[in-house]
Amino acid sequence: xxxxxAMISHxxxxxxxxxxxxxxxxxxxxxxxxxxxxxxxxxxLFPRNDAMLVPNAVQMMRVWVGGVECDLPxxxxxxxxxxxxxxxxxxxxxxxxxxxxxxxxxxxxASHADDSVFLGERFQFFDKPIVDLWMRFLLxxxxxxxxxxxQGFAGNSPKFWMTYDVDCLRKWKTRSVVKHLLHLPLDxxxxxxxxxxxxxxxxxxxxxPKHDPWYTIPQMLAQHVPKQSTIFFLGHARDHLAFRxxxxxxxxxxxxxxxxxxxxxxxxxxxxxxxxxxxxxxxEKTSLENITATKVRGHRQHYLRIxxxxxxxxxxxxxxxxxSTLGFNHRVGFRTGSCIPIAWWDLQNGRALKMLEIPxxxxxxxxxxPEHFLAKDxxxxxxxxxxxxxxxxxxxxxxxxxxxxxQEYFGHAEFHDEMLATLAAQGFAAWCPETRxx
Length: 438
Prior knowledge:
Elements: H1 3-19, E1 24-26, E2 31-34, E3 43-46, E4 58-65, E5 68-75, H2 88-96, H3 107-111, H4 119-122, H5 130-143, E6 159-166, H6 174-182, H7 184-189, H8 193-205, H9 213-223, E7 229-234, H10 250-261, E8 265-270, H11 278-292, E9 298-301, H12 311-317, E10 322-323, E11 342-346, E12 351-357, E13 362-363, H13 364-367, H14 375-392, E14 395-401, H15 412-425, E15 429-430
Parallel strand pairs: 6-7, 6-14, 6-15, 7-8, 8-9, 9-10, 10-12, 13-14
Antiparallel strand pairs: 1-2, 2-3, 4-5, 11-12
């Protein structure tokens, strides 16, 4: 099987398995999808065009997905009701596995999780899980019926996955305060005196334990964090900006052990310093494993910083089973056009990795400014993303930070709990990768 056909087959098989249907792929004179033993179209034909990984032109096409009418992007010039005129499947592969991020002009934006330069942002389709919706449409067209819940979705209920990144713990150490004071002349020169005073006040208030994020974590775990969730801890004391915390210290190691003892899943929050350093990244993972005597299966890169074409291969070689890094740092939405866990395809080496990517859709820092926000606006954003996730049959992955549960961020903890109540009222059930579809 040639590399291009292997990629297309991996895409189609992943979605067919997710939805529990049977589809065969061949590539003699293009791409042929066949569904046997059903009453429907049973066969779809597509031309082959390798350039469609990152097309020069994109049009919108109206299709019905799960009984809902959607406008979805289509490569080249689409003709109404004639969706087989262009290489749609290669286009979907390019969006799902971020072919654009491997172009030299886009590497910086990709590594910083910046959405501004990509095709999806120019054509406004990062707001929809376009790959998932197209694939559901194709599978429903092939099988002549609407697909029901994906495999493993008990009770047909949509799923959400709550995750938490622990970035700061005891935020204001002595060295942090001294460094901040020494920055006064520089901040004055750049007109940042207001933010300097704000941080000075925060450092002073942190002398009171109830205002330090480290002391809010036990309360956060007890009162706010669902049992079926994943908490990502740094395995290295520094990132590219500052000292954060050292999990080897007894007080922090005790916290890690308590998280595992409570039945919550522990994940690695990889340092941006090691995004292309397999030995150092593996050392971070081993550090958490030695402290907790458990296997670290999951990962999310700190600041969502990766080296496109490198970091995921390193994680896969380390035995990481799932990653949830691919979201944006400046907006909520569907970076990969998907919300379904799929084994990552290595575009450079033409093979599928063992590691699943579970796209990150909503982060509290992209949802709103935790210092000042309107809860109703943030709820509206989440409900919109949740509606698309439900239609796509995927996982609504959310990320919150321990820092914002501290008392200086009024209303954030309450918003978090109201959000969970809203999702429950809409029929969403908690999910984590331990219960993922195999």
